[in-house]
Amino acid sequence: MRFVSKAQLMQMVPYSFTHIARLEAAGLFPKRIKPTGFARKNTDYCKVFYVEQEVLDWMQKLVDARDQPTDTPKGDVTLIASNIS
Q: What are the strands, taking DSSP E only, across 1-85?
């Protein structure tokens, strides 16, 4: 199992982190992992990770859904993502 950082995720998925957070909150994107036990000098610091395979599986579902007949308007990825979860 491999974790990817927020920076690595942004290279994998062509969405802003704000949009990814919206998809995640709606249950349409894999949930982040917040590791515990790290000493934090800055209380605003919050490192998060994602399980790489979960992100890759989510991407594959988008590819698979691309070829499925749908009544979703073209270009509406959020609605397409909701159809595959």
A: 3-5, 49-51
